[in-house]
Design a protein that fits this description.
Structural class: alpha/beta
Strand order of the largest sheet: 1-2-6-3-7-14
Order of helices and strands: HHEEEEEHHEHEEEHEEHEHEHEEH
Strand content: 15-25%
Shape: elongated
Radius of gyration: 24 Å
Largest sheet: 6 strands, mixed
Length: 392
Amino acid sequence: MKLPQVDLASTKDVIARFISFNTESSRSNLGLIDWAEQYVQSAGVRCSRTFNEDRTKATICVSIGPQVSGGIVLSGHTDVVPVEGQAWSSDPYVLREFDGKLFGRGTCDMKAFGAIAIAHVSYFLAANIRRPIHIVLSYDEEVTSRGSIAAIEDFGRIEPRPSAVIVGEPTMMAVADTHKSISTYHTCVTGHEAHSSKPTLGANAIAGACELVSELYRLATELEQRHVPGDDRLQPGYSTINVGTIAGGTARNILARECRFHWEFRGLPGVPQDLALRHIERFAAEVTLPKLRRFASNSDIETTVGTEVPGLRAEPGSEAETLALKLTQSNATVAMPFATEAGQFQVRGYPTVLCGPGNVDQAHQPNEFISIAQVERCMKFMRDLGQELGRD
């Protein structure tokens, strides 16, 4: 079957439209979602939306082909990180082409993938595919990675269950089958103010926080020492902990009433996501809190969960891996250092891999770009997918 070609010029036009919407995670993405839905409105295309609580953001699922089980999901997020404080040489929300590259916020991470998929809807329709292709464009991946969950849970209800998921994060079109989880936390230590010359009249929240931070890094060292050399595709090949910010106190000669710190745990696939949280909560209850309450019974320690993104576990021979390797003409998978929405699909029972255009080294950077060569490789991937699923 001779299928219509989706050319580079028209694909770049769709990428440009995606880039033109400022969809920083603190803002609405509805303008982009509205445009994408209008672009694909044609016979045989089904669109459904799920929203955040105040309906200012949406995830759209565009389904092409028959309503049967065993389809393929192409998933990408529409939100981007802020540009404030970055030295861009041009408007980050106007696509600029120079020296074989396309510049703009989100070109690499990861609007190009979603735009390329949307640009190929007419191609998928003409291929008369025997199994559906579902294009999922989500929100809030950069902050919570929860914007896709409601759409994932719609499979089996609004649309039949797919058999494989390809998340188009930037992997240089390599097939990535694993990444770590990430969990973020805010810990607040509450003490009692007193003059520093009279420590028995209060409780120093900074001292308590420092003890907790020290214990977190002791645990981090223990996790590193548990590392068994072998499969070191994930670098480093062990779970990690980092305390990113800490603040508290009012003056040098006052016992601090409050101290807060923001920290994270990145776990190897298969390691419980709450491992570090359970450890520090137990340590706080058994060691730190009794010290604080010696002279100030109202002292307290509270840790709240920010983000919990599941890791992606390698599933050798899964349909997602087999299909992606075939389409990219590869014979091996790689690992990625960053967390993605892929784990949200996998923990709900869908074989999932990462495979998308662009180099993650360009993500979140000023003058973010994707090479046109990578765009063309992703376009070929879409064409080959349509032919793979097309009827004879």
